[in-house]
Structures are given as C-alpha cells and as structure tokens.
Design a protein that fits this description.
globular; 26 strands; alpha+beta; 13 helices; 8-stranded antiparallel sheet; single chain; Beta-galactosidase, Chain A, domain 5; 5-stranded parallel sheet; 7-stranded beta/alpha barrel
Length: 584
C-alpha cells in the first residue's frame, strides 16, 4: 500500500514538473474620438469604419474576450447619435466579452495637470455611464499610454488596476515581473506592466492586440480612417494564430486575478518610474510639452491656456457653493459649471500639442477654453445677484476653502534683486527680470527669442542627487527622483514644483507657459526646452525660486498653481478677476 502511495506521489510530482504553463491572451483596443480633435467628420468615420466593424467581429467570435478603452465623451456620442451601434456595444459588455475601460471624459494629457482634473473627468464619465445603464471595470488605461507613479493616489477610490505598455518602464529600467504593487506616498495600486515577463512558472501570457483600436481595421491617417480589408485580415489572423496555439482569451482584470492567485507568484513592489508615455525614445512628455514638429504648434501656450482657466473654474465653483449655502437658487449655475468642466477637460486633449497636430487640433484647445470663459462670464454675472452684489470684493482662497471680503485688491510689492541660483539661457537673445517678492522668495521672468535651429533652453544648476518633485497628477507630496535610471528623466511638473537639491527649490508658473523639464543628471542641470517654430518665435517663462525646505516650496507651488486664490469683484459693471500671488 505504501508503495502505491509513493508511486502516486511520484507520478503527481512528475506531472507537476512537466505540466505546461497555462496560456492567456489579452487585448486592449484604445479608441479615441478626439484622434483628430475638432474634426467631427473623422470622429464619425472612426465609429462607422472602425469601431462598429470591430464590434461585429467580436459578436461573431464570442470566445475572444477583449478590453475596449474609450472616453466618456464617446459614450455620449454613441448613445445619442448611433443608438444601434451603442446597443451592440452594450450587448457585448453585458455578456462579459468586452471589459469596458473608461476613466477620463476627454482624452486629456492629464499628467500635465493636477489630480483634481482627472478626478473630475472620472466623475463626469461615471455620471454618463449611470445615465445610460452601463458599468465600467476598475481597470485604468490612458491616452498615449500615459504613466505616472501618482496613479496610486489619484485612482485609489475609483480603480484597482493600471495597465501600461512597455514604455516608460523599458526606457528607464531593466526587466520586471508583470503584476506589481505601484506605491506613491502611503497609497498603492496594482500595475500590469507591458514590459513584464511573459513566461512565468505556471503562466504564459501575451497581447493579441495592444494599440489604437482604429488600426485593427484601418491605417488611421494613411487610410483617412476608412476600413482597410487587408489590415483587418492581418489583425484577425493574429487571433486565429493564438487560438490555434492554445491561448485562452481573457480580460485584463481576469489576467491580473489569475496571476495574483498563482501560488508561485509573489507580487513585488515596483521600482519608481517617473511619468512617461509610449515611445519614450521620442521624448516622452516633452513631445506634448515642448517638442514642436508640425510648424503650427504652440505647446507652452496651449497647455497654459487650459491651466490658467482651470483656476477660474475652481473659483466659480467655490462661489456657487457659497451662494447655495445662503439659500440662492443655483441650479442653472451648476449646469453651466458642469458644462465648463466638460469643455475644460476637452481643452486638455493631448493631440492639441503632439505628435504633429493639425491646425484644427491646436485651435481646438483655444476654442474649448473660449467656451469655458463664456460659461464663466454667465456664472459671474448670475453671482452678481447675490454673493457678488454691491461691488463687494471677495478673496476666494481655494487652498484654505475660505471666501472673505477684502477692502481692496492689493498690489504686489516687488524689488529689484539678483537670483541666488545659477541659470543659463540658450536663445538668439533674451531678457530677464529678477525681483524679490519677500525675503527668500524670488521671481524670474524670461523672454527668450528663437535661435536659428528653433530650440530655446532655460537651465538651472542642480545637485548630483537629493532632488525631489511631485509626479504628474500627484501634487500633494514630494518624492525623491531616482539616480539609477537608464536615461535622463523628463517631468511634466504638473504643479510646477521641483527641489534643486541645493538648498533652493524652483516653481514654474504653469499659467504662463507650461512645458516639461528634463534632468540632465551628468551635467547637473534641470532644462526647460521648447522647440519654437518660425511663426511662434518667442518663449515666455516665469519661475519662482525659494530658499528653504521642500515642504515650504511644495505648499507655495500648490497655492500658486494647483489651488490658486483670486480677488473677484464687479467694478462699474465690469468683472475683475485677479490672482493673489502667495507668499511664504
């Protein structure tokens, strides 16, 4: 009897050793109705020529599970303008074949903006889904495959899995396991890293498709977004091949659960990877915040337009809440405010400043910002009936959530000074003004003119290590920047803050020009670079230099950029909105 038991145990062990890994295939179809932002002809073509045929393919092949990622704005368009296509989409979601991945309302370049913007985007999308009886997954996948370690904080109440491609991990790091704990401050979230090991002890996994959904069956710009049978056949052949090789098709969340429940898999903590995008070898965040290839881009200005108006939206929101608590009927203003948020998020669309935007895309941001300003004008005029009556001057303090009456709008007293940190400017010529705001706080304004090759650079000396910053959409804490990365890191500086490691901190004013920074570690320089086109020959930047610790500078940055304060009044029926510059 003992011999039989030993034989069975040995046979089980042998079978375990020789057992083949289970094979899984996942897919992510990223659809973007703002592919050519502002061109509604192409928007409609994407739905008819690409999205709908893909749905029909999966309807006929129920064994192929996939993830479809699309913006909340697209759900509105599908439900209101294409009810039959929308009905099929819901059918495939409800039968569990399509895992719905929705986060942002607009395909924003959200790592360039504070966390609140992404949070608002998610809230608006969720309201749209509730309206149309849809439920999303808790998977997050981003336009341009944007990455930020701050996902752990900004998504902690809405999502539990972030999916990325091979970049930016492969650009900055070596090998990694696929399912990891991404930590930021005291928060963490699971990440499924595209660069992760595909062959594990018990599991083998791969992508059947990971791309813009449009290229499943079209050649995007190259086919003017019309369906291309040869491209579609090529994509379908990949599914057939994987099926023949024994791969089971699962959703992203299913794969994460499978890996998590594997007894031989231990989820590691993920090494810190700064914010980035797909195709990091072509500049990462800098592509949308400084690199200008089309000849019509205005990256710094475009990104700052959205940034500057968002502060006014926050101020209007605070005043509406004040009016509501005083008993005023604010229903109409709340509707305008919701529309203002929508247009603001649309203005933050990525394609207005990269890769090679068309004129309609660059204009799209300016047009959407103008719509926000128009709505704000209506809101403030309505507020004149109550909280802004009798020419009262109100100081709206977003950081402290206070609204106080002010006797006047004080001017900022500045004195000429020198800058206590070293900086340099690469330009054809430039003008610099240095002012002391208060002791240990300096303001630097630079007007730089385009050199022959177009590239203006403003650089500041740094220490070799010890630098701290806030990751994109993670402005509430400061984290150390790793010095073991394979390439120089690029940052969006979504709240403008970075500690130079020299006893001084730098804060970029994001509402003047909002461009990325690169830390050239060997040179010990933090560089702001903008490649200007001949029709946009000038760059204007405003920086604040703070002597002191990172915590003080971080608070200043968030009061300046993330949660600004405003003096608001009507003087002789003319609206005045003036930002209060914080002091230490």
């Amino acid at each position: 009897m003992n011999k039989i038991l030993l034989f069975i145990a040995a046979l089980s062990l042998f079978q375990g050793i020789n057992a083949k890994p289970r094979k899984y295939a996942i897919s992510m179809f990223h659809y973007n109705l703002q592919y050519v932002a502002g061109d509604y002809k192409i928007e409609n073509r994407i739905i008819k020529e690409s999205f709908y045929p893909a749905l029909k393919f999966f309807e006929k092949n129920p064994k192929y599970k996939v993830d479809f990622e699309i913006q909340g704005y697209a759900i509105e368009v599908l439900a209101e303008e294409y009810p039959e296509i929308f009905k099929l989409f819901k059918k495939l979601i409800n039968r569990g074949q399509i895992e719905l991945v929705i986060a942002h309302y607009s395909d924003q370049f959200f790592i360039a903006y504070p966390a609140l913007d992404l949070e608002k985007s998610i809230q608006i999308s969720d309201k749209i889904l509730a309206k149309y009886g849809m439920k999303r997954s808790k998977v997050f996948f981003a336009q341009e495959i944007q990455w930020t370690p701050a996902y752990a904080s900004v998504l902690k109440n809405t999502h539990d899995l972030v999916v990325t491609s091979s970049d930016p991990h492969g650009y900055y790091r070596g090998k990694t396991l696929p399912l990891v704990n991404v930590k930021y401050g005291n928060d963490q979230i699971l990440g499924l890293i595209g660069a992760g090991e595909k062959k594990l002890k018990n599991i083998e996994w791969t992508y059947a498709f990971l791309d813009d959904g449009e290229v499943f069956n079209s050649l995007d710009y190259r086919s003017d977004f019309y369906r291309v049978p040869e491209q579609e056949a090529k994509s379908i052949a990949e599914y057939r091949r994987l099926q023949k090789e024994g791969f089971e098709f699962v959703t992203m969340s299913e794969l994460a659960t499978i890996i998590k429940n594997d007894p031989d898999y231990k989820i590691p903590d993920y090494q810190f990877v700064p914010e980035g995008t797909w195709n990091m070898s072509v500049c990462g965040p800098f592509m949308w915040m400084g690199r200008q290839r089309s000849g019509i881009e205005t990256d710094g200005i475009t990104r700052s337009l959205s940034y500057e108006v968002r502060g006014k939206v926050l101020a209007a929101e605070a005043l509406i809440n004040r009016a509501k608590t005083s008993g005023a009927d604010v229903a109409e203003m709340e509707k305008w405010l919701n529309d203002a948020w929508k247009h603001l998020l649309l203005s933050e669309v990525s394609d207005a400043s990269g890769w090679t935007p068309w004129l309609v895309e660059v204009q799209y941001t300016a047009n959407e910002v103008a719509k926000v300003e128009n709505l704000l004008g209506k809101i403030f005029i309505k507020l004149k009936e109550n909280v802004l009556a009798d020419e009262k001057i109100l100081l709206v303090n977003i950081s402290d959530r206070k609204i106080e009456e002010a006797g006047n709008i004080p001017g900022l007293q500045l004195s000429d000074s020198y800058l206590p940190v070293q900086y340099s400017v690469r330009a054809d010529s430039y003008n610099a003004k240095i002012k002391e705001v208060v002791p240990n706080l300096y303001r630097l304004d630079i007007e730089a003119f385009r050199p022959e090759d177009g590239a203006v650079e403003i650089s500041f000396n740094t220490a070799k290590d010890g630098l701290q910053y806030s990751a994109g959409a993670g402005e509430d804490i400061a984290v150390k920047i790793p010095v073991d990365l394979k390439h120089d890191p690029a940052f969006t500086l979504s709240n403008g803050f970075i500690d130079l490691g020299t006893g001084y901190c730098l804060v970029k004013d994001c509402s003047v020009e909002h461009i990325a920074a690169t830390w050239r570690q060997q040179e010990q320089k933090l560089v702001f670079r903008e490649e200007l086109n001949p029709k946009n020959p000038k760059m204007n930047m405003r920086f604040y230099v703070i002597k002191g610790d990172a915590r003080t500078a971080l608070e200043f940055a968030n009061r300046l950029n993330t949660r600004p304060s405003y003096f608001i009044t009507f003087k002789n029926d003319k609206l005045i909105v003036k930002q209060q510059i914080p002091v230490l």
